Amino acid sequence: MTGSFGAGPLPESADVVVIGGGVVGCAIARQLSRFELSVVLIESAPDVATGTSKANSGILHAGFDAEPGTWKARLNVRGAQLYAELAEGLGIPRKATGSLVVARDAVQMETVADLRHRGIDNGVPGLEIWNRDQVVAHEPNISPDVAGALWAPTGAIVCPFLATVGFAENAVRNGARIVTECAVIGFEVADRQIVAVRTTRGRVAARFVVNAAGLHSADVARLAGDDSFTIRPRRGEYILFDRSVGQLVNTVLFPTPDKLSKGILVSPTVHGNVFIGPDAVDIDDPEDRETTAGGLAGIIAGARRIVPALPLGTAITEFAGLRAAAGKDFVIGPSPAARGLVHAAGIQSPGLTSAPAIGEAIVEMLQDVGLRLRPKASFVPVNRQKPRFHDLDRQVQARLIAGDRLYGRVICRCETITEAEIVAAIQSPCGARTVDGVKRRVRAGAGRCQGGFCGPRVTAILARELGIPVTAVRKDSANSWLFLSRADLEAGEGVHA
Ligand SMILES: Cc1cc2nc3c(=O)[nH]c(=O)nc-3n(C[C@H](O)[C@H](O)[C@H](O)COP(=O)(O)OP(=O)(O)OC[C@H]3O[C@@H](n4cnc5c(N)ncnc54)[C@H](O)[C@@H]3O)c2cc1C
């Protein structure tokens, strides 16, 4: 099967259908693409990485949080190892920063010591208890009342968008089809065996289906008569600071955790920014990604307990992400109601870290329930590398410009993103189709002005490269058109009183 990406036609049949184009579904599709199988990933949005996978902390957790023996514990540690092996080849920005869980008093030091033991049980290497002086030497801006910390050298940070796109692109390179703007709305089941998936764009015959639908994974399970779990959205809000204050912290700084979450952290990002957040608030609406005054005030107060001198004046944006909370552990395994349906559901933190390991576990499970796996000799484990102009030295930049004049045209001034990079992001095997899709892939619009300057120019490049009118270019979601034609305007189309 030839790989493809976009809102093209749905094939009539597939060996495996994966539902959901978040980091979990895309990592599963990539793992499946190692084998001689026809794989179709179905995503309701116009792009991958538009759900929880686009709004999280971007941390590759070392793996000391989860209770030993849980899926979370097993898959976190394996996932972190897999990123270390795969990230560079797949074009996923990753930095081995290490992480610190900061304690403020003797009681918290006990919790931190417990976390170290738990980490050792989970197989996390290199965990150390640091005293106050060690912590302050590593993090000069940390609160003076720190008592000590747990140092995890295998903690790291990653770009969550490019992790998702990296897995997706590699799956497509290896023959998977990713069909976007297509929602799963039902299953055909015969004698308790899944035989087809029904979507808003027709049906695909398939006997093996993976449910990686994130916040909607319980709804998808119910479509097959499976009500074995429920999902409660748990919102986390963030504030992102400009790259000018990127030196504020060197590593991921966690507070000592509580029962609900890992707490408010202060962390660098792979792109040189700093963020604070997230909080953890249970909500009802799986689409409610609003930030709130109360939530932001709470995360500022929490972050100040770790780094008192927060540069609030350099905040460039706020956002919220929704955890798909299904209980204490991930919901991973065959559906008790329908043969052939396997869940990768309720994947809250550390789901980003665990994603490639979830891919391995799900493929093994599919084999256990009857999927035949024959390794694909032509499997290509890496993606084509795309130069990041901003990160290159002047001589290399000059050589690129000499070879392609579009490298000489800076479209996003804040992040120094060139037209050549934007064109490559659109033309790649899992190419951007929306303005935010470009932002997620190359960061045009991710800087201080948040797209105020480059947004219209990115829109024009998308229209040109996709061969569509500017009025057909969308910001992100299905109906998020940015411009109206004069004719539409005169007809009152899209204009709301
Ligand atoms: C605040 C917060 C902080 C976090 N921090 C971290 C962290 O630092 N490290 C870490 O490891 N993890 C972290 N996580 C967890 C991590 O982000 C998630 O585990 C991961 O992104 C889940 O990916 P997913 O693919 O399961 O879900 P999603 O990314 O939500 O993808 C599911 C996809 O399914 C699609 N879909 C839904 N229903 C249908 C349907 N019927 N038909 C077709 N498509 C459908 C959706 O459109 C969506 O794109 C955090 C999460 C949050 C919310």
From TrEMBL:
Record domain FAD dependent oxidoreductase: where: 15-365
Keywords, in A-Z order: Oxidoreductase
Cross-referenced InterPro entries: BFD-like_2Fe2S-bd_dom, BFD-like_2Fe2S-bd_dom_sf, FAD-dep_OxRdtase, FAD/NAD-bd_sf, G3P_Oxidase/Oxidoreductase
Domain of life the protein comes from: Bacteria
MF term (GO), any: oxidoreductase activity
Pfam families found in the cross-reference section: DAO (PF01266), Fer2_BFD (PF04324)
Record-given protein name: FAD/NAD(P)-binding oxidoreductase
Organism: Pleomorphomonas carboxyditropha
